[in-house]
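Hello again, I could really use a second opinion on something today. I've been staring at a protein lately and its backbone has me curious. Can you walk me through what the tokens say about the fold? Take your time with it, there's no hurry, and the full record follows here:
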Amino acid sequence: MLTKIRGIVEAVADEAVTLRVDPFEIEVLIPEHTRRTIQSRLGEPMELHTLFYIEGGGMVGRMIPRLIGFLSPIDREFFDVFCSVDGVGVRKALRAMVRPVRELARMIQDQDVKLLATFPGIGEATAERIVAKLRRKVGKYALIVGQDSTSTATAAQANGAPENAEPDVIRDTYAALLSVGHSESQARAAIDRALAGKKKFKSVADMIEAIYQQSR
């Protein structure tokens, strides 16, 4: 399984980036939000976390191997979850991911069918299926710390690898806050405030303590 690729950005097209990995040039399909993030990085080194799949099938004239690339492992994981919905294939998911993963997850969690239905390739019926299947599965993605940056390293942190807490700690803290009566929006806001500082959280207890100290 090819899970990561590094190369020089040679070209950025509507749905793909071409990386120079000497002596080869490799086309990697990318989500729309990733395309906008990297389109100004021609000639620069780039690292993408990848999925491999075969496009086409027995009823089609040929089968084509494809690579799909993401800025972080958590983006790749979310894409896999997103594609598990009936009627959301690889190409449709790539076109539909026009916003950062955190925002998409929050829309799903908030059951915002109307907004989801406006995304490319996602009508109202598909949006309803997405919400029905995923709204209880995207909590940890909704907690990703958001940052704007053009660097690959910072983009990876922004899309799911915040350096001051592991995703499991964030997810379990979120669940703990819900269990004691906080609403989803209150829990997200509290965790965002805690992660905005420089303190590193190694456990749920550490993060909970920081959250309640901030609220005093």
Notes: The chain has two domains: 4-139, 164-214.
